[in-house]
Specification:
By secondary structure, the chain is α+β, with helices and mostly antiparallel strands. It has 7 helices and 12 strands. The strands form 2 sheets. The chain has a 6-stranded antiparallel beta sheet, sandwiched between helices.
């Protein structure tokens, strides 16, 4: 892919019994838009019988001087490919990525039978996870890494009354830091929904791991890291606060030896 191309990542949530059926449910989508299946994940722990299939393809849009505009156009152009019945979507944009979520099952089923939701992401410079993919280490090595490394947690506050919308926006943010972030909790927080994501482990110290995660997110306005016991914490808030969408983020990096499976409210 050329450096000025935009990459599209299309993640379809489907109800399926296994990976083979999840892939088959996306055949119609692949025939319509092209691309290739980049990854398939079992998310039945969050929703029974749920699988996510991510398709990778190159957008016809190119990066110009206005990166945000190109990203948003790439997302909208993809949605238009799905059919005339799809309305122009609202697109959230934080370069190097822009995204939208399509959640109307009746509308989706007309063109993509079996697909319940679609997350459409455009990336400038490509999905950053492509630069980091390596073969997983044996379990024993993973355990040793966890014992000596750092655990990263992300909290995303979203102005929405729909849990699915909050989760998709949190996943889009988490994907900039970790390939396999796992949502551990979604709970109301005043007028917002607060989504907690386990980003997995890092071999770096909490301070370094936190700064690298902040840099991966690419937003300005982060607080300087502070310390809460052994954990390093950084926060970001939208200004002005939007009526819908992400309003605040919090990253926490905790030494694996001190990490316990509790999530604050």
């Amino acid at each position: 892919m050329a450096g000025d191309d935009l990459e599209l990542l299309i993640t379809a949530v489907v109800a399926a019994d296994d990976e083979r059926r999840a892939r088959a449910a996306c055949d119609a989508l692949l025939r319509r838009v092209g691309g290739r299946v980049a990854r398939v994940s079992d998310c039945s722990d969050e929703e029974p019988g749920c699988w996510s299939v991510t398709i990778d393809l190159v957008s016809g849009e190119r990066v110009g001087q206005n990166v945000a505009g190109a990203l948003a156009r790439a997302v909208r152009a993809f949605v238009r490919q799905l059919g005339d019945g799809f309305p122009t979507p609202r697109v959230a944009c934080e370069p190097p990525t822009a995204w939208t979520v399509l959640e109307d099952p009746a509308l989706l089923d007309e063109v993509l039978p079996g697909v319940e939701r679609l997350l459409v992401e455009a990336w400038a410079g490509g999905d950053p996870q492509h630069r980091e993919r390596v073969e997983p280490e044996p379990p024993a090595a993973e355990e040793r890494e966890l014992d000596s490394g750092t655990r990263l947690l992300l909290r995303v506050d979203v102005a929405t009354d729909r849990s699915a919308g909050a989760e998709w926006q949190a996943r889009a943010v988490a994907s900039r830091v970790a390939r396999n972030g796992k949502i551990t909790r979604v709970a109301p927080h005043g007028p917002l929904l607060r989504v907690h994501v386990d980003l997995g482990s890092s071999t770096n110290s909490p301070d370094v791991a936190l700064r690298e995660a902040v840099a991966s997110l690419g937003l300005s306005g982060w607080s300087e890291p502070s310390w809460s016991g052994p954990s390093a914490v950084a926060r970001w808030s939208a200004a002005p606060v939007p009526p819908a969408g992400i309003t605040a983020l919090e990253l926490t990096a905790t030494p694996a030896s001190a990490f316990v499976w509790t999530v604050p409210g």
